[in-house]
Amino acid sequence: MPDGFLGTRADLLLDLVILSLLLVVPVLLYSWSRVRRGNYGVHKALQLAVFVVLGSAVLAFELHMRQLGGIFEATKESTYAGTAVLNGWIYVHTAFSVSMALVWIIVVAGALYFFPNPPRPIKGSRAHRWMGRLGMLLALGAGVTAIPVYAYGFAY
Ligand code: HEM
Question: Ligand 1 within 6 A of 104 CB?
Fold first, then answer.
């Protein structure tokens, strides 16, 4: 795997994954603002695009981590390797990421199944609104907590 472009020990794929996780955050906030103004079509298109892009990045990341022998092996050259700081961020970030993946799969599958095309609010929208808000917050949490994992794992 070629070197990354962010000037750390992380390789190209890890740099692409962290960048996509961060770029997704403003897109999600925009999608949220659109849906609150009744722009359901824009919201659907953006959420599906983010789902595909992020899903591919996460899949590539998981396969790559296996090749590298896991996150603890991949970050073993960090000065923070084995410390509570790095390990704590790894566990917090993993908790956000795993729960986000589960919630997103349920929200996207449910939305595609229950909302009409073109999308508009329906009787059972409440469940989507609450699960969707949870999914948005978990995605923001996964994006933000990826920064300390990357920094303590690959930059120091
Ligand atoms: C993981 C993907 C998705 C997330 C995280 C998400 C999130 C949200 C959130 C947070 C809201 C409520 C906004 C608010 O009142 O605060 C919402 C509303 C809505 N979403 Fe999604 N959404 C997703 C995918 C989709 C898809 C794929 C569709 C269409 C097929 C869709 C259609 C709608 C509609 C129609 C509403 C309005 C519901 C209402 O106001 O009663 N969403 N979504």
Answer: yes
Beta bridge partner(s), residue 8: none
Query: Does 76 sit in the ligand 1 pocket, CB within 6 Å?
Result: no
What pLDDT, in 10s, does the model give residues 76-101?
999 999 999 999 999 999 999 999 99
| CA–CA separation, 24 and 46 (whole Å) | 10
Quote the pTM value.
0.91
Q: Which residues contact 29 (CB under 8 A, 6 or more apart)?
A: 140
d(CA 60, CA 151): 20
CA neighbor of 107 nearest in space, from 37, 65, 59, 54: 54
* Euclidean distance between CA atoms 10 and 152, whole angstroms: 11
CB of 28 within 6 A of ligand 1: the answer is no
Q: How far is CA 96 from CA 29, 92, 130, in A?
A: 18, 6, 17
Pocket-testing residue among 34, 54, 128, 130, ligand 1, by greatest number of atoms within 8 A of Cβ: 128
Question: Which residues, at least 6 apart from 111, have a Cβ–Cβ distance to it below 8 Å?
Answer: 44, 47, 119, 128, 132
